[in-house]
Design goal:
Length: 66
């Protein structure tokens, strides 16, 4: 894969996260602290399940390869 094919989706995902964070935090209080707290919460709520799914996948893949 070319770098362009990786950079474009990554930028789109980051833009989506920023828009989601902005709409979630500015609805209550337009402050940087609230924005950062909401951003961390969104990243944790999306990142933790992806991490667990990746670990589960690797365990199943490794077990099936033996």
């Amino acid at each position: 894969m070319k770098k362009f094919e990786i950079i474009v989706p990554a930028l789109l995902i980051m833009a989506g996260l920023l828009c989601l964070t902005m709409s979630g935090s500015f609805m209550f209080q337009p402050k940087l602290g609230v924005y950062m707290k909401t951003f961390v919460q969104i990243c944790l709520w999306t990142g933790v399940p992806i991490l667990f799914a990746g670990i589960f996948y690797l365990l199943i893949y490794k077990k099936g390869g033996e």
